[in-house]
Design goal:
The protein has 2 helices and no strands. By secondary structure, the protein is an all-alpha fold.
């Protein structure tokens, strides 16, 4: 039989790609949460926020990073959560 018109990657390639993407996305979401949390903690005194309100602000930022990473995956099939081409 002739080659298929749409050659599919091996299962190993798909699993490695998904694992790489998941690790990349998790790292970005956790880093965003920590950066936003530290930034929000700096604002707790001047804005009279409580620590848990700062954590909620950081959670919203991390959810935004998660959404951006999912959009990046949906927009272009890569093994990265980045919107930049070629990453």
């Amino acid at each position: 039989m002739a080659d298929t018109p749409f050659p599919l990657p091996s299962t190993e390639t798909v699993i490695k790609g998904a694992r790489t993407y998941a690790r990349d996305l998790a790292e970005r979401v956790i880093a965003t949460f920590l950066q936003a949390f530290v930034g929000a903690l700096v604002l707790t005194q001047p804005l009279d926020l409580h620590m848990w309100q700062s954590a909620a602000v950081a959670g919203v930022a991390a959810a935004g990073a998660l959404l951006k990473g999912l959009v990046a995956r949906w927009r272009d099939v890569t093994h990265s959560a980045s919107l930049a081409k070629g990453v």
